[in-house]
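REQUEST FORM: STRUCTURE PREDICTION
Request ID: SP-0412
Submitted by: Lab K.M.
Chain count: 1
Length (residues): 460
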Amino acid sequence: MKKINDLIDVNYDFEVLGITDDSRLVKDGYVFVATQGFNVDHYNYISQAISKGCIFIVSDREISIDFPHIVVDDINKYYKELCIKYYDIDLNDFCFIGITGTDGKTTTATIVSELIDDCAYIGTNGLKVGNISSSTSNTTPCVSELYEKLSYIKNQSVVNTVMEVSSEALLHDRVANLKFDIVAFTNITGDHLNVHGSFENYVNCKLKLLDLLKDDGIVIINGDDPNLEIIEHSNLYKIGKKISNDFIIRNYKKIGNYIKIYLDYKDMSYVIESPFRGDYNVYNVVMSFVIAFLSGVKVEKIISKIKRLKPVSGRGEFLDFGQDFDIVLDYAHTINGIRSVLEAFKKYKRVIVVTGCAGGREKSKRKIIGDMIIKNSDIAIFTMDDPRYESVDEIINEMVGDNKDYVRIIDRSEAINYALSIADKDSIVLILGKGRDNYMAIEDKKIPYNDYDVVAKYFM
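STATUS: Completed
RESULT:
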């Protein structure tokens, strides 16, 4: 346990039980750091933090309350340094692998964590160290939570850590103190434009990950993505189908429940048997292979491990409850992500899709997604997906426009049940948008909800 004067040059000596910049998370014994976010100035919540038991305030402005505090110049930088002290972390002890991109981060990062021995994972599916898992608040956790997770990883004597690095994490400098040994870019298509303002801003934000690379670090990109052509680096590797890439996907084909991938590198050829179905997963698997390969894992070991992998929860996940049709749960919610899923399963005689669009997010993609789903499915069922403060009906109206060939069912559980009830042996039911998320965001609340549980209950 640390005391406040171990962390900050003050005369107080009370014990610190936690650090946060979210007043809702404050408990007795906490230090509250009044950071300035893009949407929220936490300075305005100092009184709330005090009422919940905080013992000390860090601010970048004088506070009007007679309470133990300190005023600092660069509060966001100070916050990270304070967390490093509190959690007793030396970032040089870690080997960080950062994976960013619009789509494929979770699948790629999860596979990498399985291919590299003693490798921790931090991302959308939480924290995983060995057989121990816990949840995280964001794809890339907020500052205090991130350092808490790194502290846990350190205490497990684990060095290798693969992280999903979101554009919002880069925008808010959550990982600014970290130095990465490897950074990988799966792709870049438009997403979160409501946050970034423009596609150019979004791309530039993703590229900030390059600034966090060690001097001798490695960059790996999807060389088939034209939006990544601007990346230049002395230690750059490209993957993809083009012969100009370093690792060339020469061919791939479906054999039973596997995808057999033929990969060329220099004068060597490798055959990878992947259990991850869908063309889009070929890139995710190859990216993971290359990251492990360049990390020093032997090729034979990588290939053997890939063949034995299990699907990533909520990412192209086939659900088997003994039914005579296929059900796929997928987190796809971007234009490119949904396009890839629809393309991957277009050979089915009857494609049934259940999806929606999140409220409080970029509206410009809604009509594009709606048109795409109606055009590329036999039955399109539109429903709620984290509506927040928006009307689900209005969101669906924006998705469908003047189209008439669709089904509207507001309640997501009812929508999924309907899709399952009309499926036959020639069908595939694609449940898109939430993957294994365990909540539905309605107004400012996160109501317990899970697509998988809905499907499981249907077959009980």
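NOTES: The first helix runs from residue 4 to 7.
Reviewed by: T.R.
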